[in-house]
Design a protein that fits this description.
Blueprint (H helix, E strand, L loop, with lengths): L4 H16 L5 H9 L9 H9 L7 H17 L9 H16 L21 E2 L35 H14 L4 E6 L6 H9 L7 E3 L6 H11 L5 E5 L3 H4 L7 H13 L6 E7 L1 H8 L11 H7 L3 E3 L6 H11 L3 H9 L5 H5 L2 H9 L3 H17 L6 H8 L5 H5 L5 H10 L9 E4 L10 E4 L1 H10 L7 H10 L3 H13 L3 H13 L3 H13 L3 H13 L3 H10 L4 H13 L3 H13 L3 H12 L4 H13 L3 H11 L2 H14 L2 H13 L4 H12 L3 H23 L30 H14 L5 H9 L3 H13 L3 H13 L3 H14 L4 H13 L3 H13 L3 H12 L5 H12 L3 H9 L3 H14 L2 H13 L5 H11 L3 H13 L4 H10 L7 H8 L12
Parallel strand pairs: 2-5, 2-6, 3-4, 4-5
Antiparallel strand pairs: 1-3, 7-8
Length: 990
């Protein structure tokens, strides 16, 4: 077919870019495409056709990848990348090709690039009606008022968190994939803030809410298939996607989101999440030594993503609300009925729901209590009728139970579903959708879930609740989560039953917990039974433990391995294949190795690759390592290729391993080139590595409200000069490239790359360049550079200026204050700390508090704790405590706990009593310890039991251990041996 003008134009641009990129082999481009996530399938013939203009690429993701990759290679070679209008040229070529074939052109307004490469999900933002915010997007419906209202949604009052949220949305709209998570208590305005921010996305953006067949499964499926560019992903209640409620999919989803956000070819996308503070704390908590890291990927994903939403309006925000309230009676009604600034809670109907709950009958309260406990203890968001029927009876007193009518449950459910002031009821009916596997059930109102986590904090469920969980829950990770909740409350018999149920449903982690329970009781037979069940279900770690125990029993070990291999345990299949190979049974061994090759476990596949390498099958080892596809495997693949592969493949695999997080092969490659005198090759590899490091640095900084330039927790005054500041951005590749250039071309040759990266925002490169200029006596050049970067708003340059002004002590106070405020406005955390310290030392307590709370609201808690701790040390105990109480929920809890742990027995009791009244989970245990020390043994036991009911059994265990020798009724010895019943009495042997 004769080429048209549009096809020739695009082919000319693509061919020119290909040549500027150094004309890489077509095989190299094919391999690079397969390394993308998800992989991009290219062929040498199609690439050849595109470059010659004989055909046009039809898939957006493929052409975006190709242009981006070739542009990066061209820039690394010091040549120009793709021209700005390449997308329009490609679009024209596609349209021309379609028209020549008789196809239809894309509809007008569909965007400059057709989105056909991955499924397009969601709906155009511009087409979303306000009314839909309540159903599809889970914005709280406002309370009804008698007067006419201006629209379905109340008029919106912008607050401080909205500005941060909008800056992230603007970055996504400008082309950089972003993620932001709004963290705040129930009904604080998180979802509405997201709705308002999304409305500012430009035309062509879609909004998508993953829900079916389950939230986590829907998102996991989409991440595997690919997400179309210009998609905003709505993850309300993020714990359903990357927390315990997502089960085994949680870490895979977190990994997929990280890859999506870091991809240079599949964006831009915007990920919007919301979380309550307690879920945020769980997902971002540091790993405990000796404990499995259940949220490693989620913690990394969420780093720097939080925007904290206060539960109340500040003074200025209330003024703004009063102005807007003159135009919306719903807002005016909320202002008239709230005295603590909790405007959003009132408008979401929280008081109305609470009033209806307080007035409910015992049967209704039993049903609501069941749903509360299911959510707070196990993350069960949908409770079935059967679950409620079984569990709720245990929440009723004998008199209340005897007074029940025949249709008590139907009547109770009818009451819970009645709306109040236009707001949905205490429970909402969720109808079954058999096509997606969703059962029929009821969902607790969001605010009542929040109330339950506070009011029932010190309540343990009755026996009927644990029974209902065993009999009527079918999702294994939820059953296991309830088992963990039972064990945390020392209801070990109930925990064992739940763990067994979860293991029967296929949850291997539940099996491990159950094994530990039996081993703690020295019940070797029960532990062995569970171990064998877990092994047959596929648990390789348990298999290894069992084989270590069976070292002297070869026949039993072999039988176990064969049984496990036959049930699909990949570890057993590998062991069996190795044993058969050693015995010369190569044919049978090959069959088991073939099973291993299909397992998908990176650790097993790496071990399999090592076996193949030892057997001389290098190609097979390469294939196994590539199938493993984790950073360890790719590092091993690079090492394997380095021994026998061609130079081009050695470099490609080293780059691939580096991109996956394994730097060793690429670093060794560059250092070897440098040692061989191939400076240009070494410099090229260093630049490749720097490009990856810089992309990661930019992604890490994007969306972070307050940047921390310190190298450790040193106080501000410990810095003696700007040269001692340690800004981020240093990498081995940058350091070694500068040294290489200096050595090869002269002592100032590295300045160019430092200047280039400094201008791109790399603070370490800027600091290093300033230091080099000063060391060479070029002080004026250094000052010009610093002033220029400060005028451009470079945060580190602004911080250096402010820091130097403070250190010199000769700068006017107002000038120093102005420099600090400029640095703080640019997001420098230390500048906020300095402003807080200056205000505190000047006696401006209120101003110091505001700076500290400003930083804490942006997830930078160091200034707030420094201020709280400083007041504590100065003897201002009440001031310190009051400031800590003013922090957001999660921050408030840990600060108050630290204060309590630091205070003397005489000083701490009022704080502990108030913390207990505020339902802070750690308070009962500390109260028990203090009361026992004071000789109040009955009260100490009371609070230790409350702590256990709240999920902190350690205090009661310690108390039991101390009292077991003075135990006439053997109560404490029985508890230590068997734990507690659901009612809190000593359990019988089980």
């Amino acid at each position: 077919m004769e080429q048209g003008a549009a096809v020739r134009a695009f082919a000319g641009v693509l061919k020119g870019l290909y040549e500027r990129a150094g004309s890489p082999t077509l095989s190299a481009l094919v391999r690079e495409g397969l390394r993308q996530r998800p992989p991009i399938s290219l062929t040498r013939s199609s690439l050849s056709e595109w470059l010659a203009g004989r055909s046009v690429p039809s898939q957006e993701r493929a052409v975006r990848f190709l242009v981006a990759h070739l542009s990066e290679q061209a820039r690394l070679a010091g040549r120009a990348g793709a021209p700005a209008g390449w997308g329009k040229l490609w679009d024209g070529a596609v349209q021309e090709r379609r028209q020549r074939r008789g196809g239809r052109p894309s509809p007008p307004g569909a965007g400059s690039v057709p989105e056909v490469q991955v499924p397009v999900r969601g709906r155009f933002v511009a087409e979303l009606p306000e009314e839909e915010a309540f159903s599809e997007w889970e914005v709280h419906r406002p309370v009804d008022v008698a007067a006419a209202v201006p629209g379905a949604l109340p008029l919106y009052v912008r607050r401080a968190h909205d500005e941060t949220l909008r800056s992230v949305v603007q970055q996504a709209a400008a082309g950089t994939s972003q993620m932001v998570v709004l963290v705040g208590e129930s009904s604080s305005g998180k979802t509405r803030a997201c709705w308002e921010a999304v409305a500012e996305l430009p035309a062509g953006w879609r909004l998508w809410h993953p829900l079916d067949p389950s939230p986590a499964q829907a998102l996991a499926n989409a991440l595997r298939e690919g997400i179309a560019p210009r998609t905003a992903i709505w993850l309300n209640e993020l714990q359903q996607y990357a927390g315990e409620q997502a089960g085994a999919l949680a870490e895979a989803v977190a990994t997929g989101l990280r890859e999506l956000l870091h991809s240079s070819t599949s964006g831009p996308v915007l990920v919007l999440g919301t979380l309550w503070p307690e879920f945020w704390s769980t997902l971002t908590a540091a790993r405990l030594p000796g404990k499995p890291d259940a949220h490693e990927q989620a913690r990394t994903l969420l780093e720097g993503r939080a925007v904290h939403v206060p539960a109340w309006f500040g003074a200025q925000e209330l003024e703004d609300a009063r102005m807007v309230g003159g135009h919306d009676p719903r807002l005016a009604d909320a202002l008239a009925h709230t005295a603590d600034g909790r405007i959003t809670q009132y408008m979401a109907g929280a008081p109305a729901l609470l009033e209806r709950y307080r007035a409910a009958s015992p049967a209704v309260r039993a049903v609501i209590g069941t749903a509360m406990d299911a959510g707070r203890l196990g993350g069960v968001t949908l409770v079935t009728r059967e679950f409620l029927q079984t569990a709720a009876e245990g929440y009723l007193s004998d008199d209340a139970y005897d007074a029940l009518g025949e249709d008590w449950l139907e009547e109770a459910l009818a009451y819970t579903q009645q709306p109040s002031k236009g707001v949905r009821g205490l429970l909402s009916r969720v109808r079954a959708r058999p096509a997606v596997g969703r059962p029929d059930g009821w969902r607790l109102a969001d605010y009542m879930d929040y109330v339950g986590r506070t009011e029932r904090r010190y309540c343990a469920p009755p026996a009927s609740f644990w029974q209902a969980a065993r009999e009527h829950l079918s999702e294994p990770h939820l059953v296991r989560a309830l088992g963990q909740a039972a064990e945390a409350r020392w209801r070990d018999a109930d925990a064992a039953g739940l763990y067994q149920r979860a293991l029967d449903l296929g949850d291997l982690r539940a099996g491990q917990y159950l094994i530990w329970l039996w081993q703690e009781r020295q019940r070797a037979g029960e532990a062995r039974r569970v171990q064998e069940q877990a092994v047959l279900a596929g648990d390789g770690e348990v298999l290894q433990e069992l084989l270590e125990e069976l070292l002297e029993q070869e026949q039993q070990a072999e039988q176990l391995v064969r049984r496990a291999a036959g049930h699909g345990n990949a570890t057993a299949q590998l062991y069996l294949a190795r044993a058969l190979m050693e015995d010369g049974e190569t044919e049978e061994a090959a069959g088991w190795y073939a099973e291993v090759a299909r397992c998908g476990d990176p650790d097993i596949l790496r071990a399999y690759a090592e076996d193949l390498r030892k057997q001389g099958d290098v190609d097979g080892a390469r294939a196994a390592l590539r199938a493993a596809d984790d950073h360890h495997a790719l590092g091993e693949l690079a090492a394997l290729v380095a021994v026998s592969g061609p130079v081009e493949e050695v470099e490609e695999t080293a780059r691939e391993a580096f991109a996956a997080g394994e730097p060793g092969p690429l670093k060794r490659l560059a250092e070897q080139a440098e040692a061989d005198g191939r400076s240009e090759d070494a410099a090229r590899v260093y630049r490749d590595a720097i490009a990856v490091f810089e992309r990661r640095r930019r992604q890490r900084v994007a969306g972070v409200d307050l940047i921390d330039f310190e190298a450790g927790a040193r106080p501000l005054r410990a810095f003696l000069s700007p040269g001692l500041l340690m800004p981020p951005g240093e990498t081995w590749a940058l350091r070694q490239l500068v040294a290489l250039l200096d050595g090869a071309q002269g002592p100032a040759a590295g300045d160019g790359v430092l200047r280039e990266l400094g201008e791109a925002g790399n603070a370490w490169a800027l600091e290093r360049l300033l230091r080099r200029l000063r060391e060479r006596g070029q002080d004026q050049d250094a000052e010009v550079l610093l002033e220029g970067e400060a005028s451009r708003g470079n945060p580190w340059a602004l911080w250096v200026q402010a820091h130097r002004a403070m250190d010199e002590g000769q700068v006017a106070d107002e000038v120093c204050q102005g420099l600090l405020e400029r640095a703080a406005a640019a997001g420098v955390g230390q500048a906020v700390t300095a402003l807080m310290s200056r205000a505190e030392h000047a006696g401006l307590t209120g101003e110091a508090d505001q700076w500290a709370l400003h930083a804490a609201a942006r997830d930078y808690t160091t200034p707030l704790w420094d201020l709280v701790h400083g007041r504590e040390q100065a003897g201002r105990l009440e001031d310190a405590e009051q400031l800590a109480w003013g922090a957001a929920d999660g921050q408030r809890s840990w600060m108050l706990r630290r204060l309590a742990q630091r205070r003397s027995s005489e000083q701490v009791m009022p704080l502990l009593r108030r913390a207990y009244d505020a339902s802070l989970g750690w308070a009962p245990r500390l109260l028990a310890e203090q009361l026992e020390g004071a000789g109040e043994f009955a009260q100490a036991e009371h609070f230790a039991r409350l702590a256990a009911d709240a999920g902190d059994r350690q205090g009661l265990e310690d108390l039991a251990a101390r009292r077991k020798d003075d135990d006439p009724g053997r109560q404490w010895q029985t508890i230590l041996a068997n734990g507690l019943t659901a009612e809190g009495t000593p359990a019988a042997a089980w």
